[in-house]
């Protein structure tokens, strides 16, 4: 609700900073963190319990389905190995994210200014999107070898579309009156772009980045399946052909933690950068 | 402080002659303005009132060079609006304060100085913030301000390049009555101090009478200037003026002019 008292005091008084102290804010944040982590944690623990019970009671063979404990022991016993390989995959994904994201945003900056151009570019972008990476990955391996490059390219490919769409929408999500103001001030196209369009697009770019980041990670892993010297994808593939289920599951677990960390970091950056945006303001009030 | 615009002796600073404007949409062509002629003199405060959709905002956009002129002639300081725009002739405010939410109040006020490609003598943004009653708020973000304070900041932003002409499109329409009355008097004080030429769109008759030297009454569909009346009230004007019989007489006259239009 709007603060009636402030609304009625017609002459604004010099502001005195109000609100919580830093420590009370930290406690509040912690409490919020715990209460928001509780439901997913409960679900996780219940799932693991059910999994364990099922494997024990039905006496499932370890090469079909390992017990949670076996996975845990394999994973924690060799964390250095898993995260070493994970880092390789992470680098490929990050490279793809920068490459695909960079091209997508640059293209969107141009396309956002012209509907005909958008109509020309979008079908191609959609064609890129619907092409399954599993089909392209072996081709890239033939063209670009077993090194990092084909994986980066695949990651770039899956990153491209979500960021392109979000960036186009974002660059257009400009307050029309702010745009008119810029024109009335005879601002250059460059100034309009950097001072108005880019900040307006930022919320869209960041949420596109969050979607793309996990996609890039999966893309890089899938790319590794069609030939790689290192990486989590290779670990999982080898474990699969050896029927080494604990390793396979530990590999997946590693990927999951990497994905979660990446998303969390991006969310944090988002919150920092978009403190002014409706969705991140504490005590947002209707305008 | 703010420099005084040299008062050219009753020269028409903005001159519209027989200006018409139509919007073409996929389905129809809509005439927003039909043969509008109007002169705004240098240093004059002219308000435009009229029914919703009669083309007030369109007229303002044409003057600001935001819409291309379709027919008639339109001159600002003896040149086409685009030229005046390049010379930094305009300060603009809208119904929505349209502050950039990622900039502090001070950075918002500075924005025109950053983007306007023109050497001039800018006004100190901090001095402007105190002029509009926002001193001490320079590091606040727009979402931390009330609607009235946002409009004050928007007004400071419009004044920062010291433009000779202020174009204001219903700047107080989104505010509550108390804040609105307050800001109305602030504007009266500021325009008296800065001697700007002001083209002001409003739906409030009392506001138009209090602020204006002249009021242009428009009629709608298609938009025309019905009549322009002089507000012959002494300046400086204060809140007391609003109860004077003369003041109320003007309000009544404007109301009946508008009513005739809606009856017709
Ligand atoms: N961009 C546009 N495209 C099509 N029609 C438009 C456009 N802008 C305005 N119009 C039409 O032109 C007419 C005048 O619009 P304008 O916004 O100038 O009215 P107004 O007098 O400012 O109204 P209000 O008091 O409600 O703000 C309206 O009929 C409107 O529908
Ligand atoms: Mg309007």
Description of the molecule:
By secondary structure, chain A is mainly α. Chain A folds into two domains: about 1-55; about 70-280, MetI-like (MetI-like fold), CATH 1.10.3720. Helices cover about 75% and strands about 0% of the residues of chain A. Chain A contains eleven helices and no strands. Chain A has helices at about 5-10, 20-55, 70-75, 80-110, 115-130, 135-145, 150-170, 175-185, 190-225, 230-240, 245-275. The termini of chain A are close together. The model of chain A is unreliable at about 1-20 and about 285 (pLDDT under 50). Chain B has about 260 residues and is an alpha/beta fold. Chain B folds into two domains: about 10-90 and about 165-175 and about 195-245, 3-Layer(aba) Sandwich (Rossmann fold); about 95-165, no CATH class. Helices cover about 35% and strands about 25% of the residues of chain B. Chain B is built from eight helices and nine strands. In chain B, a hairpin with a 4-residue loop joins strand 8 and strand 9 (about 225-230). In chain B, helix 3 runs parallel beside helix 5 (about 145-160). The interface of A and B includes residues 15 and 181 of A. The complex binds adenosine-5'-triphosphate and magnesium ion (MG). Adenosine-5'-triphosphate binds near residues 23, 25, 53 and 55 of chain B. Adenosine-5'-triphosphate (ATP) binds next to strand 2 and helix 1 of chain B.
């Amino acid at each position: 609700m709007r603060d009636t008292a402030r609304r009625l005091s017609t002459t604004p008084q010099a502001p005195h900073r109000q609100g919580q102290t830093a420590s009370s804010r930290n406690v509040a944040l912690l409490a919020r963190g715990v209460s928001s982590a509780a439901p997913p944690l409960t679900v996780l623990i219940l799932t693991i319990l059910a999994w364990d019970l099922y494997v024990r009671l039905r006496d499932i063979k370890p090469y079909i389905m390992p017990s949670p404990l076996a996975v845990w022991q394999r994973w924690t016993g060799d964390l250095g190995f898993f995260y070493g390989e994970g880092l390789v995959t992470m680098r490929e994904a990050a490279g793809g994210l920068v490459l695909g994201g960079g091209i997508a945003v640059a293209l969107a900056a141009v396309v956002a200014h012209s509907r005909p151009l958008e109509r020309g570019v979008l079908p191609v972008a959609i064609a890129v999107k619907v092409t399954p990476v599993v089909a392209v990955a072996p081709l890239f391996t033939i063209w670009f070898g077993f090194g990092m490059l084909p994986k980066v390219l695949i990651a770039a490919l899956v990153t491209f579309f979500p960021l392109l769409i979000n960036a186009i929408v974002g660059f257009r999500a400009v307050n029309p009156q702010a745009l008119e103001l810029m024109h009335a001030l005879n601002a250059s196209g460059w100034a309009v772009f950097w001072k108005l369009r880019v900040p307006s697009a930022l919320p869209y770019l960041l949420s596109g980045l969050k979607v793309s980041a996990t996609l890039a990670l999966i893309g890089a892993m899938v790319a590794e399946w069609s030939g790689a010297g290192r990486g989590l994808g290779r670990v999982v593939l080898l474990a699969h052909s050896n029927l080494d289920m604990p390793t396979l599951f530990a590999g997946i677990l590693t990927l999951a933690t990497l994905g979660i960390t990446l998303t969390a970091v991006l969310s944090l950056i988002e919150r920092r950068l978009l403190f002014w945006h409706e969705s991140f303001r504490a005590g947002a009030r209707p305008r | 402080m703010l420099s005084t615009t040299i008062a050219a002796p009753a020269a028409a600073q903005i001159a519209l002659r027989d200006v018409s404007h139509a919007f073409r949409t996929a389905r129809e062509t809509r005439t927003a303005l039909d043969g509008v002629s109007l002169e705004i003199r240098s240093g004059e405060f002219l308000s435009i009132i009229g029914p919703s959709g009669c083309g007030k905002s369109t007229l303002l956009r044409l003057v600001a060079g935001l819409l291309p002129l379709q027919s008639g002639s339109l001159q600002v300081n003896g040149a086409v609006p685009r030229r005046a725009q390049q010379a930094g002739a305009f300060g603009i405010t809208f119904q929505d304060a349209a502050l950039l939410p990622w900039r502090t109040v001070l950075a918002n006020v500075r924005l025109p100085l950053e983007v306007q490609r023109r050497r001039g003598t800018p006004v100190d943004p901090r001095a402007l913030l105190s002029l509009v009653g926002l001193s001490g708020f320079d590091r606040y973000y727009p979402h931390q301000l009330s609607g009235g304070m946002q409009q004050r900041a928007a007004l400071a932003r419009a004044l920062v390049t010291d433009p000779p002409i202020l174009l204001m499109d219903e700047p107080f329409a989104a505010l509550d009555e108390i804040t609105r009355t307050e800001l109305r008097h602030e504007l009266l004080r500021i325009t008296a101090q800065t001697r700007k030429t002001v083209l002001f769109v409003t739906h409030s008759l009392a506001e138009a009478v209090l602020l204006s030297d002249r009021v242009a009454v428009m009629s709608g569909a298609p938009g025309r200037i019905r009549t322009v009346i002089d507000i012959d009230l002494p300046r400086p004007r204060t809140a007391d003026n609003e109860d004077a019989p003369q003041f109320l007489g003007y309000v009544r006259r404007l109301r009946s002019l508008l009513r005739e239009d809606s009856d017709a």
